[in-house]
């Protein structure tokens, strides 16, 4: 199975789950559980606009167009985690 998390120094390839940063993976996992941008921001100490920007960048990397597609996209690339290796499902 392809890894979802990539290192910051590794190569970037668009539309592949393996290019998500740790923070993108964490945000995607929380969004896939149904949390709003505001709720995600409160949990991660980020602005809701920062969360929105991350999701805007995540969708094309995963080849999806909506939040409803996040869970399937994350499941296809391995178990979602919070970016520190802990399962958040």
From TrEMBL:
InterPro entries noted in UniProt: Sig_transdc_resp-reg_C-effctor (IPR016032), Tscrpt_reg_LuxR_C (IPR000792), WH-like_DNA-bd_sf (IPR036388)
Source taxon at top rank: Bacteria
PROSITE patterns per UniProt: HTH_LUXR_2 (PS50043)
HTH luxR-type domain location: 13-78
GO biological process annotation, one example: regulation of DNA-templated transcription
Keyword Ribosomal protein part of the UniProt annotation: no
Keyword Manganese among UniProt keywords: no
Keywords annotated in UniProt: DNA-binding, Transcription, Transcription regulation
UniProt GO molecular function: DNA binding
SMART domains attached to this UniProt entry: HTH_LUXR
Name the UniProt record assigns to this protein: HTH luxR-type domain-containing protein
């Amino acid at each position: 199975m392809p890894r979802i998390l990539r290192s910051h120094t590794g190569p970037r390839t668009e539309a592949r789950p393996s290019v998500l940063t740790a923070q993108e993976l964490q945000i995607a996992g929380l969004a896939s559980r149904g949390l709003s941008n505001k709720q995600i921001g409160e949990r991660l100490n980020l602005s809701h606009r920062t969360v929105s920007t991350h999701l805007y960048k995540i969708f094309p990397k995963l080849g999806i167009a909506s939040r409803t597609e996040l869970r399937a996209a994350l499941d296809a690339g391995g178990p979602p985690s919070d970016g520190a290796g802990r399962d958040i499902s």
